[in-house]
Amino acid sequence: MPATSRHRTLGFLSCALASSFWGCGFFFGKIAMAEMSFAHMVFYRFLFALVVLLPLFVTHRPGLNRKEWATLAFAAFLGIPVQFLIQFYGLSLTTVSHAALMVGTMPVILAVGATFFAHERLDLTGWIAIAASTTGAALIAFGRHSTGAGQPSLAGDLLVVLSLAIALFWILLNKHLMDRHSPVVITAYGLLLGTSMLLIWVPLRYGAPPIHVSLKAWLALAASGVLCTATTTLLWNWGLTQVPASQAGILLNMEPLMGSLLGVFVLGEHLGPTAWTGGALILAAAITLTTHSKAHIVEHQPVG
Q: Is residue 300 one of the residues assigned to a domain?
């Protein structure tokens, strides 16, 4: 296999794994939020992630100039305190099923954003795959039957969508920085900046985070930070250096698929025919995109 083709395949695999791990985020978040607020859950999630990444600050020097530090800080601000606090506040108002449905809109948001801001152009096959994958995500969410007491709400659903639109700029700014810097550097130092913002804002706004919680909550927080944050961000950022953002976005729909599998095998939920059809659509769309679709960069000529 040619090196370029091999890197592209590994890039898609990396993004798919990241999305699958992200699919556990709402699940672990709901477990932790049974014993603490959404803000304190986000606080601990990134604290655990930062601890895991500490060795990278020794092995990788940043090498960013002043303008790049400013860009990274702005991206971290949008992607961590703003996006995650809005997203998990939305989750606290709605159900995991509905939050997963809202995540199904992210590939379309990312593809459109990459078209306008990163000058990428996705071919017709790619757009059809995105439509099929997003339809599949909707079928999965509507096909799930919640066994919990929580009820969905329009406000919660819309807040999750808003957080995804904010995440678009985090992704594209990181991709821009990774044109010149290692994805490990951008991931580690971006999370350091974003977590530092949380360490200041959350205690001031929401009070000191609780310490006396159950072992189950601590394990959920650790898994959320290590698996769903540190690992996923490293995988996703590296994957974006190998494939266009508009194509990688399709793999974000692995998240609602993973959430549904957790519902079936862990929470004992029932998946109907529409949900299984949705899962098939997501997988078929991902295979189609990675094997048949092409995206290219449209050169942008500066004005003036």
A: no
